[in-house]
Amino acid sequence: MDMAMAARLGPLGLPHAALLGSSAAASTRALPLAPSRAPRLPYPLPHFPTCRRPSSSSSAAAYAARPRPRRGSPRLLAVRAMASGNPYAAELAAAKKAVTLAARLCQAVQQDIVHSGIQSKADKSPVTVADYGSQILVSLVLKMEVSSGPFSLVAEEEGILSAIDDGKSKGGPTGRHWVLDPIDGTKGFVRGDQYAIALALLDEGKVVLGVLACPNLPLSSISNPNGSSSGGQVGALFSATIGCGAEVESLDGSPPQKISVCSIDNPVNASFFESYESAHSMHDLTGSIAEKLGVLAPPVRIDSQAKYGALARGDGAIYLRFPHKGYKEKIWDHAAGSIVVTEAGGIVTDAAGNDLDFSKGRFLDLDTGIIATNKQLMPSLLKAVQDAIKEKNQAASLL
Ligand SMILES: Nc1ncnc2c1ncn2[C@@H]1O[C@H](COP(=O)(O)OS(=O)(=O)O)[C@@H](OP(=O)(O)O)[C@H]1O
Ligand SMILES: [Mg+2]
User: How far apart are CA 24 and CA 70, in angstroms?
Assistant: First the structure.
């Protein structure tokens, strides 16, 4: 993000409110929800990964002429999984469908919340409807589309309704577990700002797939709002599968585009993302890290894992997250976002430079905070982080 753009972010500490098109009228569309007649679901056109498509023209012609089963059928998913060479292709397609559908529900509810001004009242029921509704939709779609083996879902919302009891799984180092945050960035959602539906798959303790639906994030870079090639389209779907790279497409189903983190190697040209809520990340510490590193641009504050998506496509160079003492990070707040960034060529670690370990159950066991950037900036970022933490601890010990 350049300095001119940073200066346009506005004086109220609400950079994304203006920049990211966060007014409900501009950024959300009232899309029709699923008809109640299950199991017919209004799926968007599926897109499939392109890890190893045939490259020669004759094999491409044979590929194009292959017998085509009914769109969306389990057999089609299996055939495409084999053709693409991506062992998680069926799961990826199902995950994209699931979060796209959940995003439609959330968009409709957010529009209602913002229009009715309900966010200022004590009544939390619309958020609850969207949260549980999102989880139920994702759970149902995954169960319908990915039938092999036992179904295990680690999700933010546990219990309450028997229909979402699937969210009670504890995760862990063995087997496959879906990891879901049905609305990540609830505060942003209620404010009418950024949020995400974040879904990942753990296989033997490793994140192998992640999808992030960001209904209010512009499809093109937020670092260059004037250079938009997507006609001001809002609503981005990020996805990544281990070893296959990361992609972004519109939530309306445009063809996926490969994405990669920025190649900035001088912190002077870097910008950094952090939590919108100061209760979720220590803005004084992140400010000190940025200063030590030599970052000149002010922080770009965005709710939810939309930050990981924006970082993965190079809208900014660095992501810093330092919760206040005692907070335990949950796996659903980072699983999808972290694989989108690493598959886009970035690095995600804790404050000590360790990889995030998603095999320990519902929580991440990590040192102090989470940082992400490209390979060029990571060594100096780690040093700045450690220096800033030391300085903060020394100052605290003097009190
Ligand atoms: N006290 C505290 N400290 C740190 N983190 C917390 C805390 N409380 C909640 N959370 C989790 O933060 C998730 C959203 O945080 P983000 O940083 O992504 O967004 S935000 O800018 O703060 O809104 C948020 O996600 P959702 O609960 O899904 O909205 C929480 O999982
Ligand atoms: Mg969350």
Answer: 37
Instruction: Calculate mean pLDDT across residues 165-192.
Output: 87
334 lines ligand 1 (CB under 6 A): no
8, part of any domain: no
Do 124 and 254 lie in one domain? The reply is yes
Same domain, 330 and 234: no
Same domain? 225 vs 350: no
- 51-86, pLDDT tens digit by residue? 433 333 333 344 344 344 444 444 554 455 456 688
Least confident of 12-26, 222-236, 381-395: 12-26
Q: Which of 217, 234, 259 is the last residue of a domain?
A: 259
Q: Which of 138, 195, 280, 285 to mutate to test the pocket of ligand 1 (most atoms within 8 A of CB)?
A: 280
Please check whether residues 313 and 390 belong to one and the same domain: yes
Tell me, yes or no, if 186 is annotated catalytic: yes
Q: Give the domain CATH number at 128.
A: 3.30.540.10
- From the CB of residue 13, how many other CB atoms can be counted at a distance below 10 Å? 13
Which of the ligands is closest to the CA of residue 329? 1
Per DSSP, helices labelled H in the chain are 3-7, 15-19, 24-27, 57-64, 74-84, 89-116, 125-145, 186-191, 283-293, 306-312, 335-343, 378-398
> Which residue minimizes the CA distance to atom 11 of ligand 1?
280
Q: Is 113 annotated as a binding residue?
A: no
Q: Is 184 annotated as a binding residue?
A: yes
Q: Which domain holds residue 204?
A: 15-36+76-259
**Whether residue 342 has its Cβ less than 6 Å from ligand 1:** no
187 lines ligand 1 (CB under 6 A): yes
Contact 138, 98 (CB under 8 A): yes
281 pocket-lining for ligand 1 (C-beta < 6 Å): yes
Tally Cβ neighbours within 10 Å of residue 12.
8
135 lines ligand 1 (CB under 6 A): no
- Check the annotation: does 181 bind a ligand: yes
246 and 133 in one domain? yes
Number of domains composing the chain = 2
Candidates 28, 100, 166, 186; catalytic one: 186
User: Do 306 and 251 fall within a single domain?
Assistant: no
In a domain, 394, yes or no: yes
d(CA 324, CA 368): 9
Positive/negative CA dihedral, 6, 12, 15, 18 = negative
